[in-house]
Write a structure and sequence with these properties.
Layout (H helix, E strand, L loop, with lengths): L1 H39 L1 H4 L2 H7 L15 H14 L33 H7 L8 E2 L9 E8 L3 H17 L3 E9 L7 H15 L4 E5 L3 E3 L13 E2 L3 E2 L15 E5 H6 L13 H11 L13 E4 L14 H4 L3 H4 L11 E7 L4 E6 L11
Parallel strand pairs: 2-3, 2-4, 3-11, 7-9
Antiparallel strand pairs: 1-3, 4-8, 5-9, 6-8, 10-11
Bound molecules: 6-aminohexyl-uridine-C1,5'-diphosphate (UDH) and manganese (II) ion.
6-aminohexyl-uridine-C1,5'-diphosphate (UDH) binds next to strand 2.
């Protein structure tokens, strides 16, 4: 009898302990779940509305941006959520793909169709004033300024705009087009205009990549992507006028592109090459002397057509160019962005490009011979 009672009491005690354990376990689970939700923001992660608000912390715009850890981002988010009165409901754009899906490859380029302002406007309704464009469906990794040295080449500029805007759109580039127009009739200075372009476009937007293009060069293949690369880029490697080949190994003329770091590492371009020739070789020297290499597309892709033209007035071949390119190692430290001087005359935003007119002065008088 006593054994039976003892057994029952023990059984009750055991059941009681088991019940206590279950209650304890349930309480623990509730507490843990609460902390888990707050810590990792479980519900908000599956809610796109809130995800868009978190996007400030996921910087897709810079190629090297590292994503913050989830925990840190959500802590920021919880703190900012309280203060945020206006809630944006827009979805953030996904990053643009490395290989744009709408490219067509080889293009037919010709310069006989008459080109009018009206036609250019109609072809490019989504280009914003000043020649700015960004892809509507994705966020480009770089912001690209296209800088064109210019004087008195309206006919070429129309074709350039006609061909390049659609190409850049298909390439999903976030870009702006800038014409750096040399004022007056003094000797032309291509590289100085490009330096001025670098400085002036940064007043307009926070560009990461600078592509310097002659106004008469049209790419024949849209796989030649107009953005910056790990090394300074030479785009126009196979021009029709050179038989679709690189004319010499160190050629860097026509169309080239450098990011901010690459450009500043070489102190920009030389300002002291007046007239035609040599400045592109000087730039090539600067790049290699500063431990960088030129990167180039495949020769089948880097093909270009140049609109045929005569030599311009006031851009005669510079007889000093051969001696000057021997001295880049010395001159690059004092001649470049750190010595750039000019006078800005005006900046005008047209529908398909921004025109920046500048007074760049004239070449210094040559010392008398003998
Ligand atoms: N540029 C102008 N206006 C000028 C001079 C040059 O806009 O008066 C710009 C323009 O962007 C041009 C670039 O500078 O594309 C380079 O100049 P260029 O086109 O004269 O250079 P390229 O090497 O011509 O193409 C060399 C002269 C070709 C003469 C051929 C005669 N058969
Ligand atoms: Mn030319």
């Amino acid at each position: 009898m006593t054994r039976l009672m003892l057994g029952r009491t023990l059984e009750r005690i055991c059941k009681g302990i088991l019940l206590l354990c279950l209650v304890h376990f349930a309480i623990m689970m509730i507490l843990y779940w609460d902390v888990y939700i707050q810590r990792f923001d479980i519900f908000n992660r599956f809610n796109t509305r809130n995800y868009s608000r978190m996007s400030h912390f996921f910087n897709f715009s810079k190629p090297n941006s590292t994503l913050p850890t989830l925990g840190i981002a959500s802590d920021h988010f919880l703190a900012s959520e309280k203060s945020e009165a206006n809630v944006t409901t827009e979805k953030p754009l996904p990053p643009c793909p490395d290989v744009p899906p709408g490219l067509v490859g080889r293009l037919l380029i010709e310069f006989s169709t008459p080109m009018t302002q009206e036609r250019l406007r109609k072809e490019n309704p989504d280009v914003k004033e000043g020649g700015r464009y960004s892809p509507p469906d994705c966020k480009a990794r770089q912001k690209v300024a296209i800088i064109i040295p210019y004087r008195n080449r309206e006919h070429h500029l129309k074709y350039w705009l006609h061909y390049l805007h659609p190409i850049l759109r298909r390439q999903k580039i976030d870009y702006g087009i800038y014409i750096i127009n040399q004022h007056g009739d003094d000797t032309f200075n291509r590289a100085k205009l490009l330096n001025i372009g670098y400085k002036e476009v940064l007043k307009d937007a926070d560009y990461d990549c600078f592509i310097f293009s002659d106004v008469d060069l049209i790419p024949m293949d849209d796989r030649n992507l107009y953005h910056c690369y790990d090394q300074p880029r030479h785009f126009a490697i196979a021009m029709d006028k050179f038989g679709f080949r690189l004319p010499y190994a160190g050629y860097f003329g026509g169309v080239s592109g450098l990011n901010k770091t690459q450009f500043l590492k070489i102190n920009g371009f030389p300002n002291e090459y007046w007239g035609w020739g040599g400045e592109d070789d000087d730039i090539y020297n600067r790049i290699t002397l500063n431990g960088m290499k030129v990167s180039r597309p495949d020769v089948k892709i880097g093909r270009y057509r140049m609109i045929k033209h005569d030599r311009d007035k006031h851009n005669e071949p510079n007889p000093q160019r051969f001696t000057k390119i021997q001295n880049t190692k010395i001159t690059m430290h004092r001649d470049g962005m750190n010595s750039l001087q000019y006078h800005l005359i005006e900046t005008v935003r047209y529908p398909l490009y921004t025109n920046i007119t500048v007074d760049i002065g004239k070449p210094p008088p040559r010392p008398p011979r003998g």
